[in-house]
Every structure is written in C-alpha cells, then in structure tokens.
Amino acid sequence: VKPDVQIGETIMIEATPPNAGRIAAQTAKQVILQRLHEAEHSAIFEEYADKEGDIVTGLVQRIESRQIFLDLGRTEAVLPGAEQAHNERYRVGQRLKVCLLEVAQTSRGPQLVVSRSHPNLLRRLFELEVPEVFNGIVELKSIAREAGYRSKVAVAARQDGIDPVGCCVGLRGIRIQNIVNELGGEKIDVVMWNPSAAAFIASALSPAQVLSVELNDEEKVATVVIPDKQLSLAIGKEGQNVRLAAKLTGWRIDIKSASTAEEERVAKAELLTETTEEAIVEESPARTPDAMEPALVSAKPLEEAAEPLPATDGTFIPPQVPFEPQAAAEKPQVRFAEDILVPGPTKPETKSKKRKKKGTKGEGRAEDGIRLKKQPSH
C-alpha cells in the first residue's frame, strides 16, 4: 500500500488468482482486447459523426474494383464508384479532399462513406477559399452540379455594397481557380441570385442572352426566348447548360428561338382573329329586308329607248319597239325593214369600176341589166 495515497484515489494491486490456468488467462486477454477495440471504435464514431457534410482529407490506400479506400489516419473511408467524378483518375498515394456523406456503426467498427461528386463538396470548398462565404457575408443560395464537367452556383450578398460574384471569383479569378484545380478542371459558373423568378432564370442561363421569360406558376414551367444566334449557347453541350439552370432555379425551362416565338405569336393572333369573327357572326341576328316605302316606288316603270345592236354578219338588227295598243278605228300599218334601217354611206367608185360600167359600141342594155347583141340588118 502506498503511504501517500489520498482518500478517494484508486489503487491498483497486481494479484494472481490461485486457480487461474492457461485457458482462463487467454480468455481474459481476448475480453480485454475486445473491450479496447470497442472503446476505440466508439471514440472514432463520435469523432466523425459530427463531421457529416464536411470535408476530410485522405490518402488513396488501395483500389479494389470500382471502390477506392482512403486512409484518414485513425480510420479508413470508402469512396464508391457512384460518388466518384467521371473525369478523374485516381492512383495510390494520391491526396484527396472528399465530402463525408455517412458514418455508420457496424459490427466491424464505424464505416465512413465519402464522395467527390456531392454538391456539398463544392459548398465547403467555397467556404475554405472565400472568407466572405465562411463569415456569412455572402450566401450560397443554391448549387447545381454535374461532377467533373460543369457546375452553377447562385450567390447573394447579406450586406449592402458587397458584390457577391466578385467576392467568389476573386482578383483575376484566383479564388475560383483554386476550386477548379481541386475539382480537376471542372467549370464553375457563379451567377447572381434574384428573388424574382424571371430574373433568376435569365441569370441562370448565362452566358446566353435572354430576350423574355414567361412563367406558368401552376405547372412550374418557364418559357424563355433566346436570340437565334445564341440558341446553341443557351442549350449547351448535350443540353448541359439548360439542365443545370433548371436544377439551380427549380423550374422546368422551355427554350425557344426568337424566330420560332414570332411565328407562334403570329399564328396565335390569326387564330384568335378567326375565332373572334366566328363568334361575332354567331351572335349577330339575321337581318330582315326593309319594307319598301310607297313614296319611293314609281307608279310607272321607266322605259328605256332600245338601241340597235350590231349583228355578227355585218347587218343591223332593228330595235325592239315596245308594243302600244292603238285605237280600234286605226288600221294596222305594214312597216318594212327598208323604212327602219338607215342607209349606210356609199363608197366612191374608182376609175376602174367606172370603166367597167361603160357599155361597148353596138351593145344595148335592157332594163334588167342583161346585155343584148345587136341584130344584123338584112
């Protein structure tokens, strides 16, 4: 017994049980080691359970199938194939920054699952590289990411006079470049967040220029009109730009070119005009003919003088004279065409015709115009 022991202290005394054999000693050793492992696992679990969603750094220890095992120091983490960036290639001994997704307690100890494609990895990298984000002056409103290819980040300032986009990009892009290098060359677009949905959607489709945005709140659909020359830029490679913009804003985005939107507008206007005209025709009552006023009706029909009509064979057709009944005492008169027709102008006879008309010597003419030979005298 120690002479300087105080009240309440614990004293350890080595004692050997009298009937302790080899088997009992081995069993005691295993129990003690098991309790030590359990205590160690419990400490590791408590240490990393509070770090879910944070960044941890590890070394690539080994690569098995599609899984990569990282050495975190006191424990080991696994990087599944689904959480890897598609354009990254890993090698043993490589140092990686990963996002801690899940800490699970198993019979073999705590199991840590990490990720290189989760949006929280990008959020934590911004907090590490941008002090304004870490201090809360600049807020990351939303993040849309396709790991290894491209990401979009919407930022907003909590204080007046702060440029959130400039804070994240940094002088000459030094801050954003460090994040790009950490993610293996992944492109990052930093856009301004706006409480107006239309303005936010237009900003999310950058670098493309937006002409107009029409919102359908019921179906959560936004129709965006883009200039014809920037249509491919707004859609992006394999629809990547518009897909990320839809994830960032939470709206389903329908992109149309300016020419297509104009054609649809004209067709819609024509259809609306036709519908309006049909509705007016259906609503208007059938008009009844107005009653003729007796004062406007003449007692006798007007008689127009008939004009002679030229015939096709060169003659004139006598005009039709309206028949007027005469008195019974008068006798009917017979009228001939010669009395009605006006004699036409006569053409002057030429000299040759005059010569032909002159008779020869010794020839006489009958009244009917038949030439007679002179009878010889006996």
Automatic annotation (TrEMBL):
<dbReference type="Pfam" id="PF13184">
    <property type="entry name" value="KH_NusA_1st"/>
</dbReference>
<dbReference type="InterPro" id="IPR003029">
    <property type="entry name" value="S1_domain"/>
</dbReference>
<dbReference type="InterPro" id="IPR025249">
    <property type="entry name" value="TF_NusA_KH_1st"/>
</dbReference>
<dbReference type="InterPro" id="IPR036555">
    <property type="entry name" value="NusA_N_sf"/>
</dbReference>
<keyword id="KW-0804">Transcription</keyword>
<dbReference type="Pfam" id="PF08529">
    <property type="entry name" value="NusA_N"/>
</dbReference>
<dbReference type="InterPro" id="IPR004087">
    <property type="entry name" value="KH_dom"/>
</dbReference>
<dbReference type="InterPro" id="IPR009019">
    <property type="entry name" value="KH_sf_prok-type"/>
</dbReference>
<dbReference type="InterPro" id="IPR015946">
    <property type="entry name" value="KH_dom-like_a/b"/>
</dbReference>
<dbReference type="Pfam" id="PF26594">
    <property type="entry name" value="KH_NusA_2nd"/>
</dbReference>
<dbReference type="InterPro" id="IPR030842">
    <property type="entry name" value="TF_NusA_bacterial"/>
</dbReference>
<keyword id="KW-0694">RNA-binding</keyword>
<keyword id="KW-0963">Cytoplasm</keyword>
<dbReference type="InterPro" id="IPR010213">
    <property type="entry name" value="TF_NusA"/>
</dbReference>
<dbReference type="GO" id="GO:0003700">
    <property type="term" value="F:DNA-binding transcription factor activity"/>
</dbReference>
<keyword id="KW-0806">Transcription termination</keyword>
<dbReference type="InterPro" id="IPR058582">
    <property type="entry name" value="KH_NusA_2nd"/>
</dbReference>
<feature type="region of interest" description="Disordered">
    <location>
        <begin position="322"/>
        <end position="378"/>
    </location>
</feature>
<dbReference type="GO" id="GO:0006353">
    <property type="term" value="P:DNA-templated transcription termination"/>
</dbReference>
<dbReference type="GO" id="GO:0003723">
    <property type="term" value="F:RNA binding"/>
</dbReference>
<keyword id="KW-0805">Transcription regulation</keyword>
<dbReference type="InterPro" id="IPR013735">
    <property type="entry name" value="TF_NusA_N"/>
</dbReference>
<feature type="domain" description="S1 motif">
    <location>
        <begin position="53"/>
        <end position="117"/>
    </location>
</feature>
<protein>
    <recommendedName>
        <fullName>S1 motif domain-containing protein</fullName>
    </recommendedName>
</protein>
<dbReference type="GO" id="GO:0031564">
    <property type="term" value="P:transcription antitermination"/>
</dbReference>
<feature type="compositionally biased region" description="Basic and acidic residues">
    <location>
        <begin position="360"/>
        <end position="371"/>
    </location>
</feature>
<dbReference type="InterPro" id="IPR012340">
    <property type="entry name" value="NA-bd_OB-fold"/>
</dbReference>
<keyword id="KW-0889">Transcription antitermination</keyword>
<dbReference type="GO" id="GO:0005829">
    <property type="term" value="C:cytosol"/>
</dbReference>
<dbReference type="Pfam" id="PF00575">
    <property type="entry name" value="S1"/>
</dbReference>
